[in-house]
Amino acid sequence: MKILIVTHYFHPHIGGIEIVAYNQAKELVKKGHEVTIVTSKLHDEKTVELKEGIRVVRVPAWNVLEKKFDVPYPIFSPHLISLMNSEMKSHDIIHAHGVLYLGSAIGSLLARIYKKPLLVTEHVGFVTYKSSIINVVEKIAFLTIGKITLAGSQKVLVLSTNTKNFLASFTDKPIAYLANGVDTSLFKPASASVKVQLRKKHHLPLNRKLVLFVGRFVQKKGIDLLVNAKTPEFDLVLVGEGKLPKNVENTEGIFVLNSLPQESLAEIYQACDVFVLPSSCEGFPLSLQEAMACGLPLVSAEENITTEYDKTAFASLIQLSPFAIKETVSKLLNDDALRGSMSSAARKVAIAEFSWTKHTTSFLGYTKGETLS
Question: Of 183, 291, 347, 348, which one has the greatest count of Cβ atoms within 10 A?
Fold first, then answer.
């Protein structure tokens, strides 16, 4: 089949959805399908390129909302409409990432015109920002752009029960669960000796407990909560990009790494002891899945982890506050047996549920028989 994937960002922009779209496309190509990705052109990227068998087409866009307000929402040029119209004619299936993005909404309208099946993956649902104005705009977007996108979809895919329940108030279209994939041969636990070697390689302390955060340094990820939970008992390793809280510079035992390629990122997971994601309003972030594949116990809010698993076997679920993070991390770091059992449980779920082969097989299964009347 010819499959068109629409995503607001793609490499070299850094983010979970970008990684998901890329790996999903690679796996579909392996299965013999032709894949085109339509995405934003933010800098001097090539307008059209072939990347590991994937045809990537970029449309000029302005990224002012992310730069000024940490809202990842590129504003595409009008050229998006004509390009999407052209691409739609030659593809069999359309898959849009995110219901609120302009590419998704235009794809939905055109899918109805050309009677092409459209699947939509909503990764997070409603995101609460500190700004009440942004929250109001987001609500309006779900009632307008979101409803347009959902109306043209044959099936909506989600990562968590919370997102499913949220979207059910906007659409009567079928909603199904589909986990993102993780390369579990790359993201895997490391032995004690390998962990020491990796800490040396990445200039991390050898004899300290290391608590890891991976994600954008933005308000919704709760990076300030984690920094304020720091104690002399453990060091923090922060991997990502963005603006860090001011007290990071004056706090001893915090190691900041820029966004890393997947191979190096896997090594950082393997070098650490516990993974903390103090964010809110997320579906099931890729970083949690990668940490699980590497056998790291999780500390996060319950809403961030899908309810299809026995979450308490591998995750400590907390109310988000510096005190709760501090207490929970301390408990994990001082209980080797608990960390060991959580590590085994996390890896077991990752192996069973998170392969890209399983993801694409399920995805293609959802496309069968999906036609517009």
Answer: 291
Burial of 246 by CB count in 10 Å (0-12 exposed, 13-18 middle, 19+ buried)? exposed
Rounded to whole angstroms, the Cα distance separating 91 from 80 reads 16
**Do the Cβ atoms of 187 and 212 come closer than 8 Å?**
no
Cis peptide before 189 (omega within 30 of 0): no
Contacts of 136 (CB under 8 A, 6+ apart): none
Rg (CA), the chain: 20
Q: At what angle do helices 102-114 and 79-89 cross, to 10 degrees?
A: 40
Pairwise CA distance, residues 9 & 244, whole Å: 22
Q: What SS3 state is found at 8? A: coil
Residue 4 in 3-state DSSP?
Answer: strand
Pull the structure tokens for residue 194. Answer: 């390998």
Q: What is the pLDDT of residue 371?
A: 37
| Tokens representing residue 46 in the block | 């090539």
Q: Which two tokens stand for residue 150?
A: 């959902």
Let me know: does 267 contact 294? Beta carbons within 8 Å.
no
Helices 262-271 and 286-293, axial angle in degrees (round to 10): 60
Q: What is the spatial distance between Cα 114 and Cα 350, in angstroms, rounded to a whole number?
A: 38
Q: What residues does 2 pair with on adjacent strands?
A: 34
Q: Which helix (H) or strand (E) holds 89?
A: helix 79-89
118 CB burial (10 A radius; 0-12, 13-18, 19+): buried
Give 10-residue mean pLDDT values along the chain (373 residues). Answer: 97 92 96 97 97 97 93 96 97 97 97 96 90 95 97 93 90 92 96 98 97 91 94 97 86 92 97 95 88 97 79 93 97 97 96 93 81 34
Q: What angle do CA 213, 354, 329 make, to 5 degrees?
A: 30
Give exposure, 131-156, as e/b (b: 16+ Cβ within 10 Å). Answer: eeebeeebeebbeebbebbbbbbbbb
| DSSP-derived secondary structure for 97-146 | E-SSSHHHHHHHHHHHHHT--EEEEESS-----S-HHHHHHHHHHIIIII
